[in-house]
Amino acid sequence: MPKRYSDYYEYFEPSRPIATDRGIKARSQYGKIGRSWWAGRWIAALELLVDSGRLQRGRSYARKGQVLSIEEKGNEVRARVQGSRPSPYRVTIQLKPLTAEEWEKVIDQMAAQAIFTAQLLAGEMPADIEQAFKAARVSLFPEKRGDLVTDCSCPDSANPCKHIAATHYILGEQFDEDPFMIFRLRGRSQEQILEALRARRAGSPSLDTEEPDQEEPETAAPLEEAIGSFWQPAGRLEGILTTAKPPVVGLPLLKRLGPPTFLPDQDAARLLGPAYDAITRAALETAYGDAKLAGNADRAAPADGHEEG
Question: pLDDT tens-digit profile of 262-282?
Fold first, then answer.
Protein backbone atom coordinates (compact mmCIF):
# COMPACT_ATOMS: atom_id res chain seq x y z
CA MET A 1 0.00 0.00 0.00
CA PRO A 2 1.58 3.35 -0.97
CA LYS A 3 2.36 5.70 1.90
CA ARG A 4 0.55 8.95 2.23
CA TYR A 5 2.49 12.19 2.59
CA SER A 6 1.88 12.33 6.36
CA ASP A 7 3.29 8.82 6.78
CA TYR A 8 6.76 9.95 5.68
CA TYR A 9 7.39 11.50 9.09
CA GLU A 10 7.29 7.95 10.51
CA TYR A 11 9.01 6.32 7.54
CA PHE A 12 12.25 8.32 7.87
CA GLU A 13 14.17 7.90 11.10
CA PRO A 14 14.95 11.22 12.83
CA SER A 15 18.51 12.23 12.02
CA ARG A 16 20.99 14.89 13.00
CA PRO A 17 23.24 16.67 10.54
CA ILE A 18 26.96 16.04 10.62
CA ALA A 19 28.52 19.00 12.42
CA THR A 20 30.91 21.09 10.33
CA ASP A 21 33.01 24.20 10.87
CA ARG A 22 33.33 24.93 7.13
CA GLY A 23 29.88 26.35 6.56
CA ILE A 24 28.29 29.79 6.33
CA LYS A 25 26.66 30.61 9.66
CA ALA A 26 23.72 32.97 9.73
CA ARG A 27 24.73 36.22 11.44
CA SER A 28 21.40 36.31 13.26
CA GLN A 29 21.46 33.57 15.88
CA TYR A 30 18.16 34.64 17.48
CA GLY A 31 14.93 36.15 16.26
CA LYS A 32 14.32 36.92 12.63
CA ILE A 33 16.96 36.40 9.94
CA GLY A 34 17.72 39.36 7.68
CA ARG A 35 17.78 43.08 8.55
CA SER A 36 16.41 44.82 5.44
CA TRP A 37 12.84 44.95 4.21
CA TRP A 38 13.80 43.16 0.99
CA ALA A 39 15.44 40.30 2.93
CA GLY A 40 12.25 40.09 4.98
CA ARG A 41 10.13 39.86 1.83
CA TRP A 42 12.35 37.09 0.45
CA ILE A 43 12.08 35.05 3.65
CA ALA A 44 8.34 35.69 3.91
CA ALA A 45 7.93 34.10 0.48
CA LEU A 46 9.63 30.94 1.76
CA GLU A 47 7.47 30.82 4.88
CA LEU A 48 4.34 30.67 2.72
CA LEU A 49 5.60 27.50 1.02
CA VAL A 50 7.19 25.45 3.82
CA ASP A 51 5.59 23.85 6.88
CA SER A 52 6.64 25.16 10.28
CA GLY A 53 8.63 22.05 11.21
CA ARG A 54 10.90 22.23 8.19
CA LEU A 55 11.23 25.99 8.60
CA GLN A 56 12.46 25.51 12.16
CA ARG A 57 14.98 22.87 11.10
CA GLY A 58 16.06 25.03 8.17
CA ARG A 59 16.74 27.98 10.50
CA SER A 60 18.69 25.68 12.78
CA TYR A 61 20.79 24.43 9.84
CA ALA A 62 21.46 28.01 8.72
CA ARG A 63 22.54 29.10 12.20
CA LYS A 64 24.78 26.06 12.72
CA GLY A 65 26.59 26.66 9.43
CA GLN A 66 25.36 23.55 7.60
CA VAL A 67 25.23 25.47 4.29
CA LEU A 68 28.72 24.87 2.93
CA SER A 69 28.64 27.02 -0.19
CA ILE A 70 26.37 29.20 -2.31
CA GLU A 71 26.97 30.09 -5.95
CA GLU A 72 24.88 32.38 -8.15
CA LYS A 73 24.47 31.20 -11.75
CA GLY A 74 22.22 33.43 -13.85
CA ASN A 75 18.76 33.31 -12.27
CA GLU A 76 19.66 30.16 -10.32
CA VAL A 77 21.36 29.70 -6.95
CA ARG A 78 23.29 26.51 -6.28
CA ALA A 79 24.28 25.43 -2.81
CA ARG A 80 25.71 22.47 -0.93
CA VAL A 81 24.26 21.65 2.47
CA GLN A 82 25.76 19.21 4.96
CA GLY A 83 23.07 16.86 6.17
CA SER A 84 23.21 13.55 8.02
CA ARG A 85 25.11 11.72 5.25
CA PRO A 86 28.83 12.19 4.47
CA SER A 87 28.16 13.70 1.03
CA PRO A 88 26.59 17.20 1.12
CA TYR A 89 23.22 17.57 -0.53
CA ARG A 90 22.96 19.64 -3.71
CA VAL A 91 20.34 22.40 -3.60
CA THR A 92 19.11 24.63 -6.41
CA ILE A 93 16.78 27.61 -6.07
CA GLN A 94 15.55 29.24 -9.25
CA LEU A 95 13.35 32.31 -9.48
CA LYS A 96 11.17 32.47 -12.58
CA PRO A 97 12.60 35.28 -14.76
CA LEU A 98 10.34 38.01 -16.06
CA THR A 99 9.93 38.19 -19.83
CA ALA A 100 11.57 40.98 -21.86
CA GLU A 101 8.13 42.57 -22.35
CA GLU A 102 7.42 42.47 -18.61
CA TRP A 103 10.77 44.07 -17.83
CA GLU A 104 10.07 46.86 -20.33
CA LYS A 105 6.82 47.63 -18.53
CA VAL A 106 8.54 47.58 -15.14
CA ILE A 107 11.32 49.92 -16.29
CA ASP A 108 8.72 52.27 -17.80
CA GLN A 109 7.10 52.45 -14.37
CA MET A 110 10.47 53.03 -12.68
CA ALA A 111 11.37 55.80 -15.11
CA ALA A 112 8.04 57.50 -14.48
CA GLN A 113 9.01 58.02 -10.84
CA ALA A 114 11.94 60.40 -10.49
CA ILE A 115 12.72 59.13 -7.00
CA PHE A 116 13.06 55.54 -8.28
CA THR A 117 15.49 56.63 -10.97
CA ALA A 118 17.53 58.77 -8.58
CA GLN A 119 17.83 56.07 -5.93
CA LEU A 120 18.63 53.27 -8.37
CA LEU A 121 21.25 55.40 -10.11
CA ALA A 122 22.76 56.03 -6.67
CA GLY A 123 22.93 52.28 -6.02
CA GLU A 124 20.07 52.28 -3.50
CA MET A 125 17.02 50.02 -3.37
CA PRO A 126 13.88 52.22 -3.15
CA ALA A 127 11.67 51.29 -0.22
CA ASP A 128 8.53 51.17 -2.39
CA ILE A 129 10.09 49.69 -5.55
CA GLU A 130 7.42 46.96 -5.54
CA GLN A 131 4.90 49.59 -6.66
CA ALA A 132 6.59 49.70 -10.06
CA PHE A 133 6.26 45.93 -10.42
CA LYS A 134 2.64 45.89 -9.27
CA ALA A 135 1.79 48.67 -11.73
CA ALA A 136 3.25 46.43 -14.47
CA ARG A 137 1.12 43.52 -13.16
CA VAL A 138 4.10 41.40 -12.10
CA SER A 139 5.86 40.80 -8.79
CA LEU A 140 9.46 41.35 -7.75
CA PHE A 141 9.42 38.69 -5.03
CA PRO A 142 7.94 35.22 -5.44
CA GLU A 143 4.24 35.17 -4.57
CA LYS A 144 3.15 31.73 -5.75
CA ARG A 145 4.70 28.30 -6.13
CA GLY A 146 5.28 28.72 -9.85
CA ASP A 147 7.57 31.69 -9.18
CA LEU A 148 10.06 29.61 -7.21
CA VAL A 149 11.53 26.34 -8.51
CA THR A 150 13.57 24.41 -5.94
CA ASP A 151 15.30 21.05 -5.83
CA CYS A 152 17.43 19.08 -3.38
CA SER A 153 19.23 15.77 -3.73
CA CYS A 154 18.12 14.61 -0.25
CA PRO A 155 15.57 11.78 0.09
CA ASP A 156 12.87 13.98 1.68
CA SER A 157 9.77 13.87 -0.49
CA ALA A 158 8.78 17.40 0.51
CA ASN A 159 9.87 20.30 -1.68
CA PRO A 160 11.02 22.70 -0.28
CA CYS A 161 12.84 20.62 2.35
CA LYS A 162 14.87 21.80 5.35
CA HIS A 163 18.06 21.97 3.25
CA ILE A 164 16.37 24.31 0.76
CA ALA A 165 14.97 26.33 3.69
CA ALA A 166 18.47 26.70 5.19
CA THR A 167 19.82 27.93 1.85
CA HIS A 168 16.91 30.35 1.50
CA TYR A 169 17.65 31.86 4.93
CA ILE A 170 21.35 32.33 4.14
CA LEU A 171 20.31 33.98 0.86
CA GLY A 172 18.15 36.37 2.88
CA GLU A 173 21.23 37.64 4.67
CA GLN A 174 23.08 37.94 1.37
CA PHE A 175 20.21 40.09 0.11
CA ASP A 176 21.00 42.46 3.00
CA GLU A 177 24.40 43.06 1.40
CA ASP A 178 23.33 42.94 -2.24
CA PRO A 179 19.66 43.87 -2.75
CA PHE A 180 20.11 43.85 -6.54
CA MET A 181 20.55 40.08 -6.47
CA ILE A 182 16.75 39.83 -6.59
CA PHE A 183 16.81 41.73 -9.90
CA ARG A 184 19.40 39.33 -11.30
CA LEU A 185 17.35 36.32 -10.23
CA ARG A 186 14.40 37.87 -12.07
CA GLY A 187 16.49 38.20 -15.23
CA ARG A 188 18.05 41.70 -15.23
CA SER A 189 21.30 42.94 -13.73
CA GLN A 190 21.63 46.27 -11.97
CA GLU A 191 23.72 47.56 -14.89
CA GLN A 192 21.05 46.58 -17.44
CA ILE A 193 18.34 48.35 -15.46
CA LEU A 194 20.42 51.50 -15.02
CA GLU A 195 21.28 51.55 -18.72
CA ALA A 196 17.60 51.30 -19.63
CA LEU A 197 16.69 54.07 -17.18
CA ARG A 198 19.40 56.36 -18.58
CA ALA A 199 18.12 55.70 -22.11
CA ARG A 200 14.60 56.64 -21.09
CA ARG A 201 15.80 59.82 -19.40
CA ALA A 202 17.77 60.76 -22.50
CA GLY A 203 14.70 60.23 -24.68
CA SER A 204 12.22 61.95 -22.35
CA PRO A 205 13.15 65.59 -21.69
CA SER A 206 10.21 65.94 -19.36
CA LEU A 207 12.00 63.70 -16.87
CA ASP A 208 14.82 66.22 -16.60
CA THR A 209 12.84 69.44 -16.99
CA GLU A 210 10.06 68.64 -14.56
CA GLU A 211 9.54 71.53 -12.18
CA PRO A 212 10.44 70.54 -8.61
CA ASP A 213 7.83 70.88 -5.91
CA GLN A 214 7.99 74.21 -4.13
CA GLU A 215 9.06 73.71 -0.55
CA GLU A 216 9.13 76.05 2.39
CA PRO A 217 12.67 77.22 3.12
CA GLU A 218 14.20 75.37 6.03
CA THR A 219 14.98 77.46 9.05
CA ALA A 220 17.91 76.59 11.29
CA ALA A 221 18.44 77.59 14.89
CA PRO A 222 21.44 79.84 15.58
CA LEU A 223 24.60 77.87 16.29
CA GLU A 224 24.93 79.18 19.84
CA GLU A 225 21.50 77.71 20.64
CA ALA A 226 22.31 74.29 19.18
CA ILE A 227 25.92 73.89 20.26
CA GLY A 228 25.04 71.34 22.93
CA SER A 229 23.48 68.94 20.42
CA PHE A 230 25.43 69.97 17.32
CA TRP A 231 27.10 66.57 16.89
CA GLN A 232 23.99 64.54 17.69
CA PRO A 233 21.83 62.98 14.93
CA ALA A 234 18.64 64.83 14.17
CA GLY A 235 16.52 61.65 14.04
CA ARG A 236 16.61 58.00 14.97
CA LEU A 237 19.23 55.83 13.29
CA GLU A 238 17.52 52.43 13.52
CA GLY A 239 16.03 52.75 10.03
CA ILE A 240 19.38 53.43 8.37
CA LEU A 241 20.81 50.20 6.96
CA THR A 242 24.52 50.06 6.20
CA THR A 243 26.39 47.22 4.55
CA ALA A 244 30.02 46.54 3.75
CA LYS A 245 30.96 44.64 0.63
CA PRO A 246 33.84 44.59 -1.84
CA PRO A 247 33.49 46.85 -4.88
CA VAL A 248 32.25 45.26 -8.10
CA VAL A 249 35.18 46.88 -9.94
CA GLY A 250 38.55 46.85 -8.21
CA LEU A 251 40.01 50.17 -6.98
CA PRO A 252 37.00 52.22 -8.19
CA LEU A 253 38.10 55.49 -6.55
CA LEU A 254 41.60 55.44 -8.05
CA LYS A 255 40.24 54.56 -11.47
CA ARG A 256 37.58 57.26 -11.27
CA LEU A 257 40.07 59.98 -10.32
CA GLY A 258 42.60 59.00 -12.98
CA PRO A 259 46.37 59.69 -12.90
CA PRO A 260 47.25 62.32 -10.25
CA THR A 261 49.05 65.44 -11.44
CA PHE A 262 51.81 64.97 -8.88
CA LEU A 263 52.63 61.50 -10.29
CA PRO A 264 52.35 62.07 -14.05
CA ASP A 265 54.57 59.14 -15.01
CA GLN A 266 53.41 56.64 -12.39
CA ASP A 267 50.54 54.17 -12.22
CA ALA A 268 48.68 55.27 -9.09
CA ALA A 269 46.52 52.14 -9.04
CA ARG A 270 49.61 49.93 -9.05
CA LEU A 271 51.35 51.99 -6.36
CA LEU A 272 48.38 52.46 -4.01
CA GLY A 273 46.38 49.34 -4.89
CA PRO A 274 47.91 47.10 -2.18
CA ALA A 275 47.06 49.66 0.50
CA TYR A 276 43.47 50.03 -0.74
CA ASP A 277 43.07 46.23 -0.89
CA ALA A 278 44.38 45.87 2.67
CA ILE A 279 41.93 48.51 3.91
CA THR A 280 39.04 46.73 2.14
CA ARG A 281 39.98 43.38 3.71
CA ALA A 282 40.27 44.92 7.17
CA ALA A 283 36.89 46.62 6.82
CA LEU A 284 35.18 43.40 5.75
CA GLU A 285 36.81 41.40 8.54
CA THR A 286 35.65 44.02 11.05
CA ALA A 287 32.11 43.95 9.67
CA TYR A 288 31.59 40.23 9.16
CA GLY A 289 34.57 38.21 10.36
CA ASP A 290 36.76 35.74 8.47
CA ALA A 291 33.98 33.18 8.01
CA LYS A 292 31.82 35.68 6.18
CA LEU A 293 34.63 36.67 3.85
CA ALA A 294 35.12 33.04 2.91
CA GLY A 295 31.41 32.31 2.87
CA ASN A 296 31.15 31.68 -0.86
CA ALA A 297 34.39 29.73 -1.14
CA ASP A 298 34.20 26.15 -2.29
CA ARG A 299 35.41 24.71 0.98
CA ALA A 300 33.89 21.24 0.97
CA ALA A 301 34.53 18.21 -1.23
CA PRO A 302 32.06 17.78 -4.10
CA ALA A 303 29.03 15.69 -3.43
CA ASP A 304 29.00 12.18 -4.83
CA GLY A 305 26.75 11.34 -7.71
CA HIS A 306 24.36 9.01 -5.84
CA GLU A 307 23.30 9.66 -2.28
CA GLU A 308 20.23 8.44 -0.51
CA GLY A 309 19.87 10.51 2.61
Answer: 777 777 778 888 888 888 888
